[in-house]
Amino acid sequence: MEKDDKIMRVLDLYTRLMNGEVISKSSAAQSSGVNERSIQRDIDDIRKFMKKIAFQGQVVYDRLKKGYVVKRERENAPDAVEQTS
After folding, report:
1. Considering the entire predicted model, what is its pTM?
2. Of 1, 58, 68, 77, whose CA is between 20 and 30 Å from 22?
3. Is 16 exposed, middle or buried (0-12, 13-18, 19+ CB in 10 A)?
4. End-to-end alpha-carbon separation of the chain, Å?
5. Percentage of the chain with pLDDT > 90?
6. Looking at the predicted structure, is the pLDDT value of residue 77 above 60?
């Protein structure tokens, strides 16, 4: 895998999350041609970036939506639980 492929994949995931989309690891992995662990690492990288820029929210796994979403600080709800693995 080329470094550019990963960069483009991470930027695509970030853009989709910021646009309010729900990201399923399995569908993201399938469409990108990588495994789910790669998508998990990408999401972890996005979380680190958001923390570094002091973004007022976080990427969390939403059980009801069955995927990752961006929850802004004022929107955090009990149904959203951060998944770390």
Report:
1. 0.78
2. 1
3. middle
4. 22
5. 73
6. no
Beta bridge partners of 71: 58
The DSSP call for residue 73 is G
Domain residues of the chain, as ranges? 3-81
Contact (CB, 8 A) for 66 and 72? no
The kind and range of the H/E element at 29 are helix 25-32
Q: Are 82 and 60 in contact (CB under 8 A)?
A: yes
Specify the CATH class of 3-81 in words: mainly alpha
